[in-house]
Amino acid sequence: MALIEIGRAINTHGLKGELKIESWSDFDEIRYTPGHTIYIDRNGEVEAFTVKSYRPHKGYALVAFEELPDINAAEPYKGGIMCVNEADRHELPEGQYYYDELIGLMVEDEAGRHIGQVVAVEETNGAQDNLRVAREGNSDALIPNIPEFVKKVDKDVKVITIHVIDGLL
């Protein structure tokens, strides 16, 4: 079973065993639906838990699990990485991709010339995310992840085709 990381437990909250989670997911309401299974990875040791309740609080997800009835039971899971089964991944609309689907893809221009490989997707405070592309012999390039620059994502061939303008690279 392949797991996808969706957040990290940064602390406990209250006495009833809630974990305060720094979320890396855009779908907390779906991920933490009561009854869903969340896997917590603590240094390579993975355990399955059933969501009891979820609520947003000051930019964090507060999640209680059936198996963690109080703060004493929840305390050892601080620092744990929250994961979901890859098979439970929420389907995205056409043309949208999860970051981990883009990382590792090769990048080429519209003429088919190799540019580099996506090593990260970086969120900005602006309108779009950027693809960080490692280029051999050059510094990394930041490509705005918008249709004006990203022309095609082919996950089967593992290639992203971009439109290059002066100053982009």
CATH architecture of the largest domain: Beta Barrel
Total of DSSP H or I helical runs spanning 4+ residues: 3
Largest sheet: 6 strands, antiparallel, barrel
Q: What is the tally of beta strands? A: 12
The helix-and-strand class reads mainly beta
CATH H-level superfamily title of the largest domain: RimM
CATH fold topology of the largest domain = Elongation Factor Tu (Ef-tu), domain 3
Count of separate structural domains: 2
Judging from the principal axes of the Cα atoms, what is the shape? Answer: elongated
Strand-residue proportion: over 45%
Structure write-up:
The protein folds into two domains: 3-87, RimM (Elongation Factor Tu (Ef-tu), domain 3), CATH 2.40.30; 99-162, SH3 type barrels (Roll), CATH 2.30.30.240. It is 7% helix and 46% strand. The chain contains three helices and twelve strands; from the N terminus they run E-E-H-E-E-E-H-E-H-E-E-E-E-E-E. It has helices spanning 28-31, 71-74, 99-102; strands at residues 3-13, 18-23, 37-42, 45-57, 60-65, 81-85, 106-109, 114-122, 130-134, 141-144, 150-154, 159-162. The strands form two sheets. A six-stranded antiparallel beta barrel has the order 1-2-5-4-3-6. Strands 10-9-8-7-12-11 form a six-stranded mixed β-sheet. A hairpin with a 7-residue loop joins strand 8 and strand 9 (130-134).
Fill in the keyword field for this structure.
single chain, 169 residues, mainly beta, Elongation Factor Tu (Ef-tu), domain 3, SH3 type barrels, 2 domains, six-stranded antiparallel β-barrel, six-stranded mixed β-sheet, 3 helices, 46% strand, elongated
